[in-house]
Amino acid sequence: MGKTTKIYFFEKENFGLYFVIGVFIVIIVASIGKCHTEKEIIENMAFAKGLVTNCSSSTKPPSSTVEFEFRVNNQLIHSICTTKLPRDGLRERVVNKYFPVVYSSKTPDFNRILLTQEDRMDYGLTDAKTEEIMK
Fold first, then answer.
1. Model pTM?
2. What is the pLDDT of residues 55-85, one digit of tens each?
3. CATH of the domain at 99
4. What CA–CA distance (Å, rounded) separates 129 from 117?
5. d(C-alpha 55, C-alpha 61), whole Å
6. What are the angstrom distances between the C-alpha of 32 and each of 39, 43, 81, 96, 110?
7. Is position 7 within any domain?
8. Which helix (H) or strand (E) holds 23?
């Protein structure tokens, strides 16, 4: 009888290829989720006043995580986002301060805090509208 050869799906020679394919799939799925969230926010856009409660920084990649909360229909929503704002003095500039938050009126858990003028302009938020929200 002939000798049978077992073929292994994850052979050492192919590990790098499988790893790259896996990373690629994760990136695609994450991008699709982010696009869905952004689309949901834009289609059902609403604004609220949000309070930054904490922030922390990392060096790789250089970014900061901002924790914030805001109210929708008397429900307190806690959320987290990342920002590329300069880390130096960020805590003093944002923690315990209020900023506009854009969110989906259908799904308030889909939200973004708008820390900069550029962020606000991305959602068509004028200075007058920002002042109205921040009252």
1. 0.72
2. 988 777 767 899 999 999 999 999 999 887 8
3. 2.40.50
4. 12
5. 15
6. 10, 16, 17, 33, 14
7. no
8. helix 15-43
Residue 35 lies in a domain: no
> Residue 118 is which amino acid?
E
Q: Is residue 26 a part of any domain in this protein? A: no
CB within 8 A of 15, min separation 6: which ones?
none
As a whole number of Å, the end-to-end CA separation of the chain is: 85
- Number of domains composing the chain: 1
For the ranges 1-10, 13-22, 86-95, the lowest mean pLDDT is seen at 1-10
Q: Which two tokens stand for residue 118?
A: 């550029």
Whether residue 105 contacts residue 45, with contact meaning beta carbons closer than 8 Å, is answered with yes
CA distance 20 to 82: 25
Q: For residue 100, what pLDDT is reported?
A: 97
Range of the domain at 72: 44-133
Specify the DSSP class assigned to residue 87: S
Structure tokens at 133: 């929200």
Domain assignment of residue 115, yes or no: yes
Could you tell me the two tokens for 48?
């609220």
Strands (E) across the chain are located at 45-58, 63-72, 75-83, 98-104, 111-113
